[in-house]
Amino acid sequence: MATMSIGFPDRPPRVAAPAAKLSVELAGVQAISGRTRLVYLDNLKWVLIAGIIFYHAAATYGAVGTGLYTEPTLSPVAQNVLSAPGVVGILFALETFMLVAGLFTPRALARKGTGRFLRDRLIRLGVPYLATVVVVVPAVVWVILEVIGYPATLPGILQWQLQHLEPDQMWFVAVLLFFTLCYAGWRWIRPARETGPTPLQMRHLVGATALIAALTFLVWLPFPLGSVQPLDLHLWEWPQLAGVFAVGLLAGERAWLTERPSASIRRACWLAPLPAVAYVAWLFIAYRSSQPPYVSVAGWQWQVAVFAVAWGVVAVGWSLAMIDLFRQAARWSGRLVRALSRDSYAAFFLQLPVLTLLELGLRRLAWPGEVKFAVVASTGIVICFALAWAVRRAVNAVRTHGGRITGLRRSRRTALPHTAIG
User: Fold this and answer.
1) What distances in angstroms separate CA 199 from CA 36, 64, 251, one per listed residue?
2) What's the pLDDT at 82?
3) What does the H/E/C string look like for 351-376?
4) Is residue 172 part of a domain?
5) pLDDT per residue over 200-239, tens digit each?
6) Domains: count for the chain
7) What is the pLDDT of residues 32-72, one digit of tens each?
8) 209 is in which domain, residue-wise?
9) What H or E segment, with its residue span, contains residue 25?
10) 190 lies in a domain?
11) Residue 304 lies in a domain
């Protein structure tokens, strides 16, 4: 198959994955105005964001999950049906984002240098996180309490937020920022060595899965699955997220995924998680009727150890399987796809106020929970991406008017667009 090379200019010395040796399959790349885009990652990104918005809408009406506003009006059958993809999504969606983020982080660091890279990440990830904690969550809580008629004042809500620092879905962004800063610090102390592309091997996957499983079991001792920590940091999920992020970093530095993995690795990634998902489903069914499904997954129990191994297998296997699936089947391109990809991070940020307002607007209607969910999920996805598009256009207009667009366009011509989840 024909290939094309992607160069990374202004690369400082001693950085992994030299430009001259990097190549990607032509079928997965689209040239646009002198730039290159990995279109299958464009599609993977916005599809996963849409799935997350879908899942959060389902959690409001009774599926597994929590939120600032809940209205459990789904029937028991609908709750179980909608909870299943939510549980599976918890097991691989965020891990897939972490893998993609890790995959492109070395390139971004090499291209920008440590100082500019850290500044960009603090702005791109840190500012939306702080905006959510300081502004968005208090405002949404105030609107919820006003609509349901609960006596509360805005100062009281702000005091509550200062005590809890609730970030809602943006906790994931805070974790990604922390991992990114750690990697940048590590590579500042110990720069990566020049290496050529190397193939992904089975031992890499086995080692990553074993490490994730061991760390998961140990972390679940003080922080059981589903437990709550300050800042809602989901510490019980950090071993899985950190593990796949590290796999992505190594893949980016060593060019593991510039060529499609071998058939045996692809089969292992698709088949190995199936027993793990079956075990998770058994846990879900066993605990669903009497208590939240995560309460008993703690302590020195063989069930916990098996679950930790299962999660490690799913985190690594299905993350790579999703990338391979979209690499082969999701080559849709065009202006709409590019817009959906560019606006996916903003849509992720906007989902809390958008979904909450839609849910509160339907609150007094005597519709079944299934109907409300269908309306909120479908309308919410469209509105989130439409608002994100409008915000991006407005920001670009302001930058153009201020005469700062030249440098932005220059950087976009030399950058791959997938250096973070957005």
Assistant:
1) 23, 39, 9
2) 84
3) HHHHHHHHHHHCCCCCCCHHHHHHHH
4) no
5) 888 999 999 999 999 999 998 888 877 888 888 889 899 9
6) 1
7) 333 456 788 889 999 999 999 999 999 999 887 778 899 99
8) 3-111+199-413
9) strand 23-25
10) no
11) yes
